[in-house]
Amino acid sequence: MVEQARASTPIHDFPNVRFEVAPAEDMPFIKDHSVDMVVAGQAAHWFNAFTFWPEMKRIVRKGGTIALWCYTDPTFVDSAKASEVLMHYAYGDNERLLGPYWEQPGRSRVQNKLRDLRPPENDWDDIQRIEYEPATTGSNNGEGTRFHYDRMKLGDCMRYVRTWSSFHAWQEKYPRARSRQEGGDGDVVDEMFEAMVSSEPQWQSGDDWKEKEVDMERGSGLLLARRK
After folding, report:
1. What is the pLDDT of residues 198-226, one digit of tens each?
2. Which helix (H) or strand (E) holds 1?
3. Separation of alpha carbons 148 and 162, rounded Å
4. Alpha-helical runs (H) found in 25-79
5. The whole model's pTM is what?
6. Contact (Cβ atoms closer than 8 angstroms) between residue 195 and residue 86
7. Are 21 and 2 in contact (CB under 8 A)?
8. For every residue of 168-180, which 3-state class applies, written as one string?
9. 99 Cβ partners below 8 Å, 6+ apart?
């Protein structure tokens, strides 16, 4: 990934762009109090707070800012039953579902919108949390400030769910389970989406439900803080 980023930003065109690989808690190549802004998207749930905040205190200049952002699972804003089915399959604790296969505590921190990450008030000021929790009563009817909206075909959404880390761990548990697309009897994602389609009559119209377009929103959490 880093090599791909370097290839897309050649040094002769972007002389001030530099890529490094390091844990967020230990970046010795960054000078003290030299950073204007730190941004992390869908990553901060893995940070060790005990060592992350001291490192941020070291590298961020006074008046510099930090922005940590995460998003949760998709909610079908016009389809309450399908949303319930997705959450059941995503987080149910039965070993045939996906719940037991998320890496923890990271996933729980995402679901909690990074509320477990608390900037030390002795070092940080202007601390803000901007959150959004979708509703199933229509688009932009949730609580808070919406950042993430998609309109997607169910087939594309199905392919997206198969990118989840929990699904890859589920596959390791059940290596013989093959999707219907692969000619198998179906896997947990096939079962999930068939249950969702069964729960929503409006999804069943047409020759191929995978071509049905649906509106989705995600819950999100944005944590902002300014260095004292």
Report:
1. 999 999 987 799 999 999 999 999 999 99
2. none
3. 20
4. 49-59
5. 0.92
6. no
7. yes
8. HHHHHHCCCCCCC
9. 90, 91, 92, 93, 166
